[in-house]
Fold this protein.
Amino acid sequence: MPFTIKENISWVGKVDWELRTFHGQEYSTHRGSSYNSYLVRDKKIALIDTAWGTFSHEFVARLKREISLDKIDFIIANHAEPDHSGALPELMRNIPEVPIYCTTKGVDSLKGHYHQDWNF
């Protein structure tokens, strides 16, 4: 469920209470984890990151309840690890022309993960 951080910023991520290990066995948690995604509404509307791919359909459905996807002006991808970008393929099926902003290495990494040539 989204919650307001500030008048124009909402957390639209996902809490995964079942997660116990991530990044291989390097990190573990006994309380789950969150996949942090933020919707920033200003002169333009930006979505920062998404959620783990396992939750991509749920993430996009919940995001649609928060905002009409065609109102998103751009997406910011902090990095391509699947816990940050996993729902990107499902999201981009809905809004394929929306630009994704990231570093040059981020483009390479996202293309490597998802084999897509989105609007970078």
Summary: The beta strands are 3-6, 9-11, 14-16, 21-22, 27-28, 33-35, 38-41, 45-48, 74-76, 100-101. Residues 3-114 form a domain with the Metallo-beta-lactamase; Chain A fold (CATH 3.60.15.10). The chain has a mean pLDDT of 88.
